[in-house]
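Saturday, quiet lab. Running sequence design on the structure tokens for the scaffold JK sent over.
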């Protein structure tokens, strides 16, 4: 197998968490009488934390600072957490086991916070499959800036041509391509993602086995 490492995004790839977050944001907006622009709401999928609250501020009923809106959300939903075990995408565990058996390194590069990544890895039991994880909170710029992937490559000590990235969102795909990486995108038509820049489109995470063996 030519690829020596696979770098995974988290939300939308390992777990189907984006619909859960979006529904919670929609409920929050409706509770406060905001007009729901579904096109704009859908852009929340794959957005960084900073971009999420800038989008939410545009949907708010009055002008508001995005950081203040985030604080208000946290006050109203202090205990909101996703049940990560309930939203694991089918076939992920089997693929991670297959990569381990093949001697292919798995790394995780997500825009989510370190706390969220740690909890996901613990609750799902995926932790032992990953050599390391990287949180977008470590960097000044979020995806689509390639910094998170360039840093991940430096941690792997591998050139871009030896790695495959698995993404789903427009920003994630753009970030990986800007870092010179080959990208397989998990097809998702719910959020109007433009995934045309990806090198491969897959309907199931298990399809990566065939892609990797054919390379």
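Result came back. Writing it out in full:
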């Amino acid at each position: 197998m030519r690829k020596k490492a696979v770098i995974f995004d988290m939300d939308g790839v390992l777990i189907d968490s984006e619909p859960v977050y979006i529904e919670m944001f929609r409920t929050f907006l409706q509770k406060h009488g905001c007009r729901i622009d579904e096109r704009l709401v859908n852009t929340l999928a794959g957005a960084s934390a900073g971009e999420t609250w800038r989008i939410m501020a545009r949907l708010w009923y009055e002008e508001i600072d995005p950081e203040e809106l985030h604080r208000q959300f946290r006050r109203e939903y202090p205990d909101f957490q996703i049940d990560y075990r309930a939203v694991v995408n089918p076939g992920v565990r089997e693929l991670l086991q297959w990569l381990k058996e093949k001697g292919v390194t798995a790394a995780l590069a997500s825009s989510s916070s370190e706390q969220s990544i740690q909890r996901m890895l613990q609750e799902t039991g995926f932790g032992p499959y990953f050599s390391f994880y990287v949180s977008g909170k470590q960097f000044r710029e979020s995806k689509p800036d390639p910094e998170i992937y360039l840093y991940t490559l430096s941690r792997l000590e591998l050139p871009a041509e030896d790695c495959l990235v698995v993404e789903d969102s427009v920003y994630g795909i753009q970030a990986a391509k800007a870092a010179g990486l080959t990208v397989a995108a998990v097809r998702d038509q719910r959020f109007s993602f433009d995934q045309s820049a990806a090198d491969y489109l897959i309907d199931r995470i298990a399809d990566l086995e065939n892609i990797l063996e054919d390379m």
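Notes for JK: The chain has a mean pLDDT of 94. Residues 18-31 form the longest helix (14 residues). Ask whether to fix the surface positions before the next round.
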